[in-house]
């Protein structure tokens, strides 16, 4: 019979993990005739007899097809980790740097960490379904697990074309990926007040200020340098940004990337200037103390930097921001949602969607899409609209003023009401 059983001392489970227990596995061995003579096909280690019989029946049909190409033994026996690394070396040539970084992160953390030790020909749809279930159990978002499936599907499809495997196991999984979770609502002015209060005196103070009050992108915040900040004229330029992902351990940034919008100038409002002054003073003190101690200070001239002047890694900022919010007992948002918060609050307070978009560095079309107003704005309109720094200052000033005074105004109103209630009727 083409299917035979054998005893093993350490049987693997459905996830490919060694159980440490003895058990029975099933092997498939098929002898078949080719124009070149008799050959033998074999595949070993099926967990159930049913799986082995189904595979045997499927292979007999394929082997009878004269155009069927057998998988290459060497290619199918490499581990998934080895194959994924080689695949990325080839596949990454056609990808953008940001996409490459995302692929490598997902492969390392969500694929190789769990099943990277298995051989390529051991990967089955059931094993991948188990992997997806594990990732969901760890609390990963639907979009993240779906992205893992997409990466695996692309990688396995190439392996199938190379002749390393017979089919694409990622395309035969039964895991259902529903619609992605709802984007968190942006913070209201009251929540921004709470967040600013909890970040004051911490390393999050300036990043939250620039993200939540100015709507700057993460890479723009981390790439803002003091030579682009004019404290005398109360403005700063957003013309460069941090490269997507500096290598781990980077101390000096040799070259910054240009921003998507050139020539973007933003005003420093009365409410935010003390934060800029405080940040500059703090960094000057840190630089001075490092010099006294004989330690190296890496002077990148960054507004947002580690205590030794070295840059922050963008992805670390995003992940650690979520941890900060949990410790601070604040509603969950992504760091990028600070940008949405600024856009929403400025628009609700002023209704000036174009100036808000100029502050954010959007194109005219992008402004409408971001605020949900329209994506069919006439391109010619942009030619006749000139948003001056004064108008940006008015919009930002309105928003910043609300953030820093609304709570105080409310307290005054409450105290007045209490006083009125305490005053005798004849004295009113």
Structure overview:
It is a single chain. This protein has 428 residues and is mainly alpha-helical. The chain has 3 domains: 3-70; 76-171, DNA polymerase, domain 1 (Orthogonal Bundle), CATH 1.10.150; 189-411, Intergrase catalytic core (hpI Integrase, Chain A, Orthogonal Bundle), CATH 1.10.443.10. The chain contains 16 helices and 8 strands. The chain has helices spanning 49-63, 73-77, 80-91, 97-115, 125-137, 142-162, 189-199, 205-214, 218-223, 273-293, 314-327, 337-350, 353-360, 364-371, 381-384, 389-422; strands at 3-8, 23-34, 37-46, 229-230, 235-238, 240-241, 257-258, 264-267. Strands 1-2-3 form a 3-stranded antiparallel β-sheet, covered by helices on one side. The protein has a 3-stranded antiparallel β-sheet with strand order 4-5-8. The longest helix is centred in the last third of the chain and has 34 residues, at 389-422. The chain is elongated, with a radius of gyration of 30 Å.
Tell me the number of structural domains: 3
Distance between the termini: 104 Å
CATH homologous superfamily grouping of the largest domain = Intergrase catalytic core
- How does CATH name the architecture of the largest domain? Orthogonal Bundle
Q: What order do the strands of the largest sheet run in, or round the barrel if closed? A: 1-2-3
Name of the top-level CATH class of the largest domain: Mainly Alpha
**Gyration radius over CA:** 30 Å
Poorly predicted runs of 5 or more residues: 374-386
Mean pLDDT: 82
Query: Looking at CATH, which topology of the largest domain would you report?
Result: hpI Integrase, Chain A
Order of helices and strands: EEEHHHHHHHHHEEEEEHHHHHHH
- Extended strand count: 8
Main sheet summary: 3 strands, antiparallel
β-strand percent reads 5-15%
| Count of separate DSSP helical elements | 16
Shape verdict: elongated
| Helical proportion, percent range | 40-55%
């Amino acid at each position: 019979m083409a299917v035979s059983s054998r005893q093993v001392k350490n049987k693997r489970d459905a996830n490919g993990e060694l159980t440490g227990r003895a058990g029975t596995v099933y092997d498939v061995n098929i002898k078949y005739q080719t124009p070149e003579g008799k050959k033998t096909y074999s595949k070993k280690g099926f967990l159930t007899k049913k799986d082995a019989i189904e595979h045997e029946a499927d292979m007999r049909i394929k082997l009878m097809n004269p155009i069927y190409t057998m998988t290459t033994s060497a290619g199918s026996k490499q581990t998934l980790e080895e194959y994924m690394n080689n695949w990325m070396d080839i596949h990454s040539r056609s990808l953008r740097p940001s996409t490459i970084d995302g692929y490598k992160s997902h492969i390392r953390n969500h694929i190789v960490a769990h099943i990277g030790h298995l051989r390529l020909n051991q990967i089955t749809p059931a094993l991948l379904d188990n992997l997806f279930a594990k990732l969901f159990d760890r609390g990963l978002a639907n979009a993240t697990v779906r992205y893992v499936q997409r990466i695996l599907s692309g990688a396995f499809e190439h392996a199938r074309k190379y002749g390393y495997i017979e089919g694409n196991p990622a395309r035969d999984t039964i895991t259902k990926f529903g619609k992605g979770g709802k984007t968190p609502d942006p913070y209201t002015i009251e929540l921004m007040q709470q967040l600013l209060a909890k970040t004051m005196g911490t390393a999050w103070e300036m990043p939250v200020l620039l993200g939540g009050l100015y709507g700057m992108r993460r890479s723009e915040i981390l790439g803002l340098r003091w030579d682009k900040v004019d404290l005398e004229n109360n403005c700063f330029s957003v013309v460069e940004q941090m490269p997507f992902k500096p290598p781990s351990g980077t101390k000096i940034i040799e070259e910054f990337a240009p921003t998507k919008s050139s020539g973007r100038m933003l005003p420093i409002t009365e409410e935010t200037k003390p934060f800029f002054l405080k940040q500059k003073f703090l960094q000057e003190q840190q630089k001075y103390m490092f010099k006294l101690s004989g330690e190296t200070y890496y002077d990148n001239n960054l507004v947002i930097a580690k205590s030794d002047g070295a840059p922050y890694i963008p992805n670390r900022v995003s992940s650690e921001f979520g941890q900060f919010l949990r410790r601070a007992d604040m509603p969950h948002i992504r760091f990028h949602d600070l940008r949405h918060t600024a856009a929403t609050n400025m628009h609700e307070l002023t209704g000036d969607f174009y100036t808000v978009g100029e502050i954010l560095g959007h194109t005219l079309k992008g402004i409408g899409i971001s605020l949900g107003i329209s994506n069919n704005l006439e391109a010619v309109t942009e030619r006749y609209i000139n948003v001056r720094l004064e108008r940006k200052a008015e919009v930002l000033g309105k928003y910043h003023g609300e953030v820093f005074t609304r709570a105080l105004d409310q307290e005054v109103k409450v105290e007045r009401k209490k006083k009125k209630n305490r005053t005798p009727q004849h004295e009113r």
